[in-house]
Amino acid sequence: MPTAREQFFYGGGDTVSAIGLGIGISEDSATSPSRVYNSTTVPVSTTNTSSWRNGTTTVATNGTQTKHGQTQTTPLAPLAPLPELEEEKVPYDGDTMSNLPPREPVDIEFKELSLTVSLGFKRGSKEILHNVSGKFPGSQLIAIMGPSGAGKSTLLDALSGFKTTGVDGSILCNGRRRDLPAFRRMSCYITQDDRLQPLLTVSENMHIAADLKLGEKVSYEEKESRIENILVLLGLYNHDQTLTMRLSGGQKKRLSIAMELINNPTVMFLDEPTTGLDSSSCTKVLELLKTLTSQGRTVICTIHQPTAKLFQIFDQVYVLSAGNCVYQGSTQKLVPFLQTVDLPCPMYHNPADYIIELACGEYGFDKIDTLKSATENGSCLTWFDNPGSLLRAEQLMRKHPIPKHNKNRSLENTGYANQCSVLLRRGYIKSRRDTTMTHLRIVVNIAVAILFGAMYDRAGREGSRVLDNYNLLFAILMHHSMTTMMLTVLTFPIEMSILIKEHFNRWYSMKAYYTAMTIVDLPVSIISCFIFTVIIYCWSYQPMEWVRFWMFFAISLLTVFVGQSIGLMIGAWFDVVNGTFLAPVLTIPMMMFAGFGVTLRDLPSYLKWGSHISHLRYGLEGFIGAIYGLDRGILECNEAPYCHYRYPKKFLEEITMSGDQFWNDVIALSAMTIIFRAVSYIVLKAKIKSVR
Ligand SMILES: Nc1ncnc2c1ncn2[C@@H]1O[C@H](COP(=O)(O)OP(=O)(O)OP(=O)(O)O)[C@@H](O)[C@H]1O
């Protein structure tokens, strides 16, 4: 049997290639037993050359349709019926969407759109989209296709408003220039990777999304009913108590869609919704999206190389090749289009595969130019289903009144207080289940306290072991600073992708996220620090005075907060690899400036400034003030005949600390916490902005 390429270049043997393009007209198909059908082959009988989507079609999408070398004619399932999610055995009920009111369709058009990215300092820039145009009418399921690197995700980013930097050209919504805040209020973006909270169940994720998107104005019953309907529609109802991390790839994808459906967006952008899914899950996801379009939603998704079966689910396709449009129009008309430009699709070839092969330049780069000119880089509307009925911009403007001006500048659906309280609830659930950030942290604090206690048993009251106790105080300081810093260095890199998605989809503001994240961590920080302090303070026999204990605890806690804030700042600035390298590296100079190895008096004058920015210096000074300050009396001397530091004052003199700087240390550590937190918030905001 000739290969697709051979058929293309040398003709299809006994096949009339006129219809070609995935629609092979066999002169005598019944007498061609040698034909092999693969999953992407869509030959159509001569009785149905006009529509290979709905007519009687010879499909070989699985082995059963090719029997003993003979092709069986199988009618394709009509597209209209709604999907049945067999996997979950949920009978589909047309009413399941009753709580999601139909939407007024939105027509998106873009003209001469180009997108340029900066390649970095002194490296210039690169244009990814080259003046492409296109039209995505409302209520349609639209595929943006193309080879890898063609610019599919970039086009999706530009249209959704996710990318605004370097975008040139015009994007129209219902004929009017896109008002980005208003457009973002009616649209959502579902990313390729599943950015979901792994430690929450399906139901919890849905409730959090509902509370953030619908707020308190919508009643509990209404929210419940919406969640129920969506979960039933998406076949997730039976899994509502499953932790998200335990869901299958397809279920995660459906949950991502479900969470965005809660506020009933009009336009949905999905980046490769079928990637990583088996063919049955792909079909289910696409059929679900198709269902959503029937209620007025416009669903635009990027897709790599759909099989013939998946391809036919789409209404319209937009094909890109190296940032240029090579086809725009209905899926059914792709074959006739290719025929018209003299690039007929070989028989038994999936047109979707064929156009990608053409777009890759497999048949010569001149073919790409031919296609680009034929589609006028996306301006040509000839190949739409019913081009005559497409409304021009002016007609659309007349049909759709000017939208009401929204005085509310905030993009989020609910207020700051509601966002904070819902995020706190989510944070609480997460920290209850998080083995590292919560459980391991408490266990590590207890284990280290026991270890230190055993090593420095009674060092706190013994005059002959003052230097041991000094070492212990510094070790405690390092423990508080390093353990929290290393944990929080990971906070933003781990959460960043979820944060970007949820923030872009207007779930919450950065301010609310940051406030909730700060508050949620407080109980665990305080509890683990308190347990540690009690164990080590008692075991090492530090002075049994409440004032000194609380001073000691206060300095410990503030050191924890500073360590956390530095960790957050580094995590906001750098990725995981650089962050985990930089955090300990930056701690070393802080240690040197703490006055521990080299006393503050002996620091070279040109390095004195370092001691003022070292949180470990203030921590150590604070500990010394708590343990040896407040005019502490003579120490016991039971373990050695001579106690050099029997008088605490002598020790303070030698380490050049006065022991009365406690409040200055508290102020310095508090100020550092506030400054580092503020810097990490600013860096985080800038980073999120820079992504766009
Ligand atoms: N910020 C950037 N800096 C430099 N090049 C970029 C940047 N963003 C995208 N590109 C380049 O632009 C081209 C298009 O990228 P895009 O992610 O849109 O492709 P795609 O068609 O979605 O590919 P895939 O299907 O593999 O995801 C690629 O060559 C990519 O390397």
Automatic annotation (TrEMBL):
UniProt-annotated location(s): Membrane
Residues covered by the ABC transporter domain:
108-347
| Coiled coil, from the record | none
Keywords (A to Z) from UniProt: ATP-binding, Membrane, Nucleotide-binding, Transmembrane, Transmembrane helix, Transport
Task: Supply one GO CC term from the record.
Answer: plasma membrane
Give TM segment ranges: 438-456, 476-500, 512-537, 549-574, 581-600, 666-684
Topology term for the membrane: Multi-pass membrane protein
SMART domains, per this entry?
A: AAA
Return the Pfam families for the record: ABC2_membrane, ABC2_membrane_7, ABC_tran
Principal location class: membrane
Point to the regions of Low complexity compositional bias: 38-55
* GO molecular function annotations of the record: ABC-type transporter activity; ATP binding; ATP hydrolysis activity
Q: Where is this region: Disordered?
A: 34-55
Q: Which PROSITE patterns match?
A: ABC_TRANSPORTER_1, ABC_TRANSPORTER_2
Give the family from UniProt. Answer: Belongs to the ABC transporter superfamily. ABCG family. Eye pigment precursor importer (TC 3.A.1.204) subfamily.
- Put simply, this protein is called ATP-binding cassette sub-family G member 4
**Taxonomic placement:** Eukaryota, Metazoa, Ecdysozoa, Arthropoda, Hexapoda
